[in-house]
């Protein structure tokens, strides 16, 4: 499982061209779903209007060099390290899920387009990263689902309570979990591998096809919002908020700090 390319083994049943076509369709669904979400929710209109307001109300002009520096800080701090999360557990689960998902998707694309033919040996690092990426997604995702979600921890709801906002995390967990199970069963030569392959494809299609109704596109909006916040702080507008206090307000009692926000 850690050393064999599951898509190369699958090519004996399904043509690599079919697998590649499916991936292209998923990419089109991501792009189209994100653009539809932007137009439907008018996110881009809101963002640029807010940007112009912040720029007009700013106390000073932010130069191009400083703008590049703020963009790099946003990419490193908010993007690569998720430093906007104050709660350490929430930050760790987010990083596990994010980096696991990136490794999982990138290696999937490489193995399907470059090494789906068994005649072309797959570098051992690719299936290893694919499996580890899926395990990271499962580790971070299940940790978040059962122990960190606000409505479960703060409001005492059942961890199995499902609302539309959970569509992204549930379809992501279903896709990676079923993908790992399919890969394991296929490597073991089990006849039930094709059943899990079918469920894996259904879950993956839901993940990438439900973008207009899930929080998938949030990963594209979040860096833009973080960058706009840094620029508004730099030019002095601060989104019409007062300057930070000398002693920040502390929520919760002195004995027990809140752990659900």
Care to count the β-strands?
Answer: 0
**What is the H/E string?**
HHHHHHHHHH
Shape: elongated
CATH arch. level architecture: Up-down Bundle
Low-confidence stretches: none
Q: CATH topology, anyone?
A: Fumarate Reductase Cytochrome B subunit
Short key terms for the protein model shown above:
66% helix; 261 residues; elongated; mainly alpha; Fumarate Reductase Cytochrome B subunit
Secondary structure elements and pairings:
Elements: H1 6-10, H2 16-41, H3 43-57, H4 64-80, H5 88-114, H6 125-148, H7 150-153, H8 167-187, H9 193-209, H10 218-234
Helix pairs in contact: 3-10, 4-10, 5-6, 6-8, 8-9
In short:
The protein is mostly helical.
Fold and architecture overview:
- Helices cover 66% and strands 0% of the residues.
- It is mostly helical and 261 residues long.
- The protein has one domain: Fumarate Reductase Cytochrome B subunit (Up-down Bundle).
- α4 (64-80) crosses α10.
